[in-house]
Amino acid sequence: MIEQSSIEKPAQRVRRIVSITLAVALISGCPLLAQDSVFVHENAYQDKILFLPALGSTPETGFMFGAVVVPQFKLSGSGPETRSSSLFFSGIYTTKNQVLLSLLSDIILPDEKWVFTGNYFTNYFPNSYWGIGPATGDNDEMNILFTQVHIKQTALKKVRRGLFTGPFIRWSKVFNLSFQSIDGRDIPAPNDPGAEGSVSTGVGWMIRRDLRDSNMTPTRNHFVEFSSLVNPSLFGSTNPYTSFLFDARKYIQIGRNERSVLAFQGLFRSAAGNPSFLDMSELGGAVIGRGYYGGRYRDLNAAQIQSELRKKVMGRLGVTVFGALGEVWHRYEDIKLSSVKWSAGAGIRFNVNKDDPTNIRIDYGIGRGTSGLYIQLGEAF
Fold first, then answer.
1. Coiled-coil stretches, from where to where (predicted)?
2. pTM higher than 0.90, yes or no?
C-alpha cells in the first residue's frame, strides 16, 4: 500500500531492504538463514522465519546496514485462498547517519475475513528538502534533521472476495527539527508549515479491492484503494488537515508460460488544510518516480502514473523496464503540463523464495537531471 504522506516513507524503505547474505546463501544452496516453523498447513504452505543481516540502498538513505527478522506464515485454518501473513522487524543504520527501528505487519485471518496492517517505527532521519511546489530548483536544497515516532494501524473487514473496508488510526510526532545548508551550517527554519516540529493525530476510513495473487510479487489481477484521513486539532494535531488517497494497480500476464507481467499504477493524493510539509503529497522515491529523490517535489496535491514490464529470464533471474509521469500542485488552476516530471529506468530481479515468490530488485532510474539506484526487497508496486 502506498502511504498517506512522505513522513511514512522511512519505514516503507526499510521494509524493502535486501539481504545480500540471503541471496548468496540461496545461490549456494545453504539453508542456514531460513528456519522452517513446525507448522505445515494442509495447502502445503510452509512457514518460514528469516534471520538476516541486511544491506540496501536508496538515494534518500545511501547504503543501509543492519539486521532484519521476517516471519512469513499462514494462521491456523488458512487455506490456499488466504495469502501469507508477515512481520518485519528491523534495525538499520545508513551511511547518511540515519537510524531506523521499525515493525511492519500484515496479518491475514483465515479466508481473509480480516486484514490487519501495522506500521510502527521510530527514527532519527537526516534528509534533504527543497521547499514546497513543483518548480523548486537544485539551489533550494537544504538539509533537515529530525527525530520521529510513528504509529499506524489498519483493520479491514472482508465484505466479499477481494473487497475490504475498515478504519485506521495514525499518530506521528516530529521533534528536534533543525535545518542546515548543504555545507553543514545551521540556518533558520523556513516559513513552511511544520518547520518547528509537528504532531499529527488522525482517524480514517479505507476501502480496498485486492485480487492480487501476492503482496510482494503480484503477477495478475488488480488492486484499488481509496482512503480518507482527518487530522483535527481536537485530537491534538498541530497542523490540522484532511487528505484523500486513490491508488489503482493492474497486472497482466503476457506471453507463453506466464513469464512476463505488464503492470500499471495510477496514484492520486490531495490534502486540504494546513499539513506539515512532511505530511504533504510528494513525488519521488523507491515506489513511484524512481530516479527522483523521495520528496524532491511536494505540495498539497500530487498525481502520478507508472508502468513496468517484468520478465523472467531463467530460473530465479528476471529483468524489468519502467517509466512514470507525475506532478505536484497547490491549486488546480496552477497545473502546467509543461512541468510534468518524467522518469524511466531498468532493473534486475532475483527470486529469494520459490515457495512464496519474493524478489530482490536492483533498479536504476533517471529523471530530469537526476538519477537513483535502488536495492530493495519486493516489487515497487
1. none
2. no
